[in-house]
Amino acid sequence: MAKKKSDKETEPKKVSTKRFTAFLKNETTHFVIGLISVIFAVYLLLAFTSFFFTGAADQSILDNQQPGELMQTANHVKNYAGARGAQLAEFLINECFGLAAYFIILFLAVVGMKLMKAYQFRIWKWFMSCSILLIWFSITLGFIFDGTFGDSFIYPGGLHGHNVSNWLTSQVGMPGVGLLLLITALLFFIYLSNETIQVIRKALRPNFKRKKKENVSATEEDPAKEAPKKEETKKEYINPGPAIVDFELEHPAKEENAEEQVPFPFENKQATEPEIRVQEPADENEDDEENIDEPDFTISDEATEDDEAYKGPVLPPYNPRLDLENYKFPTLDLLNQYDDDSPNIDMEEQNANKDRIIKVLRSFGIEISSIKASVGPTITLYEITPAEGVRISKIRNLEDDIALSLSALGIRIIAPIPGKGTIGIEVPNANPRIVPMQSILNSKKFQETTYELPVALGKTITNEVFMVDLAKAPHMLVAGATGQGKSVGLNAIVTSLLYKKHPAELKFVIVDPKKVEFAIYAPIEKHFLAKLPDGEDAIITDVTKVVQTLNSLCIEMDARYDLLRKAGCRNIKEYNAKFINRQLNPEKGHRFMPYIVIIIDEFGDLIMTAGKEVELPICRIAQLARAVGIHAIIATQRPTTNIITGTIKANFPARVAFRVAAMMDSRTILDRSGAQQLIGKGDMLYLQGNDPVRVQCAFVDTPEVEKVANYISKQQGYPTAFMLPEYVGEESDSGVGEVDMNRLDPMFEDAARLVVIHQQGSTSLIQRKFSIGYNRAGRIMDQLEKAGIVGPTQGSKARDVLCMDETDLEMRLNNLQQ
Q1: Euclidean distance between the first and the last CA atom of the chain, given in angstroms as a whole number
Q2: pLDDT tens per residue, range 69-101
């Protein structure tokens, strides 16, 4: 009983601590503190500026003040900021840092603007910079003007600058102090920007030339210009950890004789009141907002002798983000924050469920030694430890009896829990909570992840953020009945990738047979979407376009494998690292490869309409495309064997199952039962390996996705969407022999001059330059081939141009006219 009393005494302290922490992290509190900081900075600016005009008159009053004189109304202080402003100016300027004290005002303004969320600053970097400049300018001004203003009321470097400069002069002399200040300034500029190194090199040796490669060490290479940093997140959310309720079962004789405790199982089978110990949720995301930064973009310096060297001048490593260097990642304030997403343990519900479970098991002669509850957003996992001699199969067969006792839908028994000597009983909560996407993306686990393609799906039963790396999945199958959360799950996948990847690093191919489900992503076409050269819409809705797109992706996959073979790399990560370090020559066809994620909704509808024409390229991509950065996610609401075939299942090891109607459907998706016992509304099982994990999918509403897409669309994008290779089906093979050269296109001669000037026979080039459709550009290209100006098609590569210059072209055109 003493323990229960002490627990009750500590509860108010914990509650008050939580309230105080919540008050400090409240957005209104941040705004008020920021506003006060900005106003105080303005007040200091007024006091400092007035000090230069009124300081001489105020100095005698401040130095010879009588007790309480400054508190009087007639204190004769001339400073515009009053007596306290005059004191602050005198102290911070003359007695401390001199004119450099203005950096204090700058830092206060920056902190205030950051807290008010008017601007986005990196506080730590500003603090370091202002502190260094404050000290450096104080010492420099004290060193330069030492003795110059001896008769003045102003000391440019302040007392700090005067004392430190005099001490340094006594130690290293005046030349030494000058050199010390110079090198300190250079180190500060190097801290601000690595471009300073190049400026210093040019100053020391204007004709700086590259030495031979074997004489240049890796440390002499300039690092890449720092990629643009993402705006720091504007909201802070404390992501709760596991909420665990531990029920300790006691023997009835325990209170009478504490020394003669009898371990479980009980000698008499009477029910007892358990002692409840609640373990508070641990905060997973207690770091400052400053730690929430844009996704890491690392540049590798590794090189081998066998690499294909780029024989050019010394250049910094290639940064693919520089094409859109001002791109800003979406901010978390675009997503909704809900009030009921924090862990809330209803002890009455937990005790009632615990008592019912114990009662049902005892009614069938099954005793347990312990029971513990892990409370999740929608499901509570009760872990029970059976007494010795109890068969697991006996408990597994009581699933329906326990469900009847708890009056709950979707009871699921895990016997045993993998890696533990316990049996799990999953029971739906009476009051399920929403898992907002904002809380998932703001978690420490997501912000600090090193995954190549991080996909945040939601939270587990123990309130832990659940994430997977799509690059290692490498393909995902999403299935479930209508209205159980598939579309929200797909939006969560896309949203988490948009928050972590730059447009230069990721492209989406979206297939939407419904025509309305993914239309919200149309605004980001020029940033993240890929399409065929003749495609009008980047969101593919036509079945024929789906077949062409999938075959085009196969061409892209083969082309990427050719580039990997030439570069001597095994996967896209190694290849891009070499390209970034300029070890691959773009003139030989090498290029930076973005990841491509294919999302296909309503896969069953495509199989019904196109059949093998869709399944074959999908299977080929699933089998081979992982190494070249192409990953597929397919979703269907009809998990039948004719839709999810054996070939599909073999190549899609990562599977997400929402609630289904029958056990057979669950076996089709996961090769085991369980999905039919889910409760819907985002409740899902994720399988990649041996055992499925139960996850509550993060909720992201359509308006939230629209806000994110509009935020991205308003920024500078690429001229067009990412163009996939041209694909010509078998029906187009009748080709050039049927071209009528007597009816040439009006743009024929202009197109001929274009391809000769650029020495590139590409249909997409003609499309872009003349703003015409793909079909017309294709007919012009066939006429150019018939005229002998360009060669035949070479798959994904551009056609060879057979005319060397414009003179040769004019001769061929004259021959056509004769």
Answers
A1: 111
A2: 677 777 777 788 888 888 888 888 878 888 888
Structure tokens, 471 = 């690059």
Q: How far is CA 538 from CA 520, 729, 817, in A?
A: 12, 20, 41
Q: What is the DSSP string of 456-511?
A: EEEEETTS-EEEEETTTS--EEEE--TTSSHHHHHHHHHHHHHTT--TTTEEEEEE
Q: Give 277-302 pLDDT, tens digit per residue.
A: 444 444 444 444 444 455 555 555 45
CB 695 within 8 A of CB 686: yes
Q: Three-state SS for 707? A: helix
What distance in Å separates the CA atoms of residue 44 and residue 54, rounded to the nearest whole number? 15
Dihedral angle at the C-alpha atoms of 499, 501, 502, 503, nearest 10 degrees?
-100
How far is it between the farthest Cα atoms of the chain? Answer: 119
Radius of gyration of the chain (CA): 35
Q: How many CB atoms lie within 10 A of CB 20?
A: 10
Closest CA to 105 of 133, 124, 77, 84: 133
Distance CA 156, CA 237 (A): 46
Nearest alpha carbon to residue 632 among 610, 647, 604, 654: 654
pTM for the full model? 0.56
Please return the burial class of 653, using the count of CB atoms within 10 Å of its CB with bins 0-12, 13-18 and 19+.
middle
How many secondary structure helices (H) and strands (E) does the chain include?
25, 18
Residue 59 has which token pair?
């100095």
Least Cα distance to 751 among 705, 728, 721, 784 occurs for 784
- Which among 597, 494, 509 is positioned nearest to 546, based on CA atoms? 509
Backbone dihedral region of 295: left (phi > 0), alpha (psi from -120 to 50 degrees) or beta? beta
